[in-house]
Design goal:
Order of helices and strands: HEEE
Structural class: alpha+beta
Radius of gyration: 12 Å
Largest sheet: 3 strands, antiparallel
Shape: globular
Strand content: 15-25%
Strand order of the largest sheet: 1-2-3
Length: about 70
């Protein structure tokens, strides 16, 4: 996701009561960890330049903050 969108997601997690960690650096990228309702742990990774990639634009998340892809 765009690195500049991590603030949006942090605020959204607070609003929605999503358990999340503080922003941290991993391998030079800024990461926001969180836990889903089933206890699965995930991380959103802010990637410089990701804003040039197409994001989901048909939901309640503004397209500029949309997730751009998934990694396993």
């Amino acid at each position: 996701m765009p690195a500049a969108s991590l603030g949006y997601w942090t605020h959204r997690f607070v609003e929605k009561g999503v358990t999340h960690g503080a922003l941290e650096k991993r391998f030079g990228e800024t990461v926001l960890t969180f836990t889903d309702p089933d206890g699965m742990r995930f991380a959103l990774v802010g990637v410089p330049g990701a804003e040039s990639e197409a994001g989901w634009h048909n939901g309640e998340i503004p397209a500029e903050h949309a997730i751009r892809g998934f990694m396993a």
